[in-house]
What does this fold into?
Amino acid sequence: MDPSTIGLFGFIITLVLICLRVPIGFALAGLAIICTYLFFGFKSGDEFQAAKAVYPTLALISSNVFEFLHSYPLSMVPLFIALGHIAYHAEITTDIYYAVRVWLARVPGGLAMASAIGCTGFSAITGSSLACASAMGRICIPEMMRFNYSPQLATSTVAIGGTLGALIPPSILFIMYGLFTEQSINKLFLAGIIPGLLSLGGILTVVFVWSKLKPQDAPTADTTYTARERWRATFRAWPAFSLFLIIIGGIYGGIFTATEAAAVSMFIALAYGVLARKLSWAHFLQAMKDTAVQSATIFFIAVCAKMFVAFVSLTGLTHDLISLIEYYQMSDWAILIMIALIYLVMGMFLDPLGIMLLTLPFVIPLIEGMGYDLIWFGVVVVKLLEIGLITPPVGLNVFIINSVVNNTIPVHTIFRGVINFLAMDIVVFALILAFPILSLFLPNSL
It folds into this structure.
């Protein structure tokens, strides 16, 4: 059997299994093992040799898994996840929201803006979009509803704000992208800063315009704060600002690697929580339990994806895809738009990490062949995955918010609010695509 046929067969069946809601890790690993076995079984000719295929299949699978799990940069994943959970239980992340809320109390849509900025601060510590939406949803949505904000605005702001966890460093998606494409994670983190702030600016603009056009959806609070109260609230947020400076300032200044920054910032967050008596032993154990579960989930998907990448490389399917595109003489822009559409469509149905790991073996050789910077393309991919977190019918952040409010606000109501932000997200994506300098300015100056 021709290797390309085996590769195409494996890829199609994998997509079918994923569409049938088979967990993506099992789909990737299962098909990778079976198709690798078929590849080695048919390698000597048309007659299948079952016995001779066993050893090379096991050797290839085990060596790839071993090399991936013993990768030093992979250790930053549980470190950043632990940092996020510890910061949440120590109330470091919530202090950002309350500080911004005090300053924006009299601004139209001020509570919603504070929620978006709070999500940015949370993202700058945790690196997880879903964790950001879940944690900030519990804090911000009840507060906005208490001040008679419309359910659409209250829920959609946190849903879209939660997506910033994918772009604002540290980002789990950037870490996995860097590991699979062998790119500098330090540079990927820095590349996400300006696009992340640009996305935040777009969210704040939409909230402001929404509040002006429909003031009944965002009533201005009657509460006033003195200058002393504002500065006191700002000072309370110093641990969060310190952690962000350690992570970004340390990496940009060449003081830390991303892994070292993760370890140092986690230790500081833990020390603060203990010394300030905000982190109890029960909270610490819960944070470690959540870290273990989340890390194990990510590692399992990543290991299964590594098997799939090895299988794709073995069959030469990527080379055939490049040859097909060269045959039809597609322009660079046509290829980029096609890739963007594929990510947007897949984002409507699948988990962001799974989408990225499933598609990288095919799109990275295309991008390299066109001579584009893989750091810039990492930002493009993560922005597309970020958009997928809020697109119907399966916008994961929307369902997270729905569960946070105990289903009291219907999913379709949240989606109707999110639609107002989607156009802004597409504009930001277009700017990132058209002007690579937005992503490359900071990493190139490193």
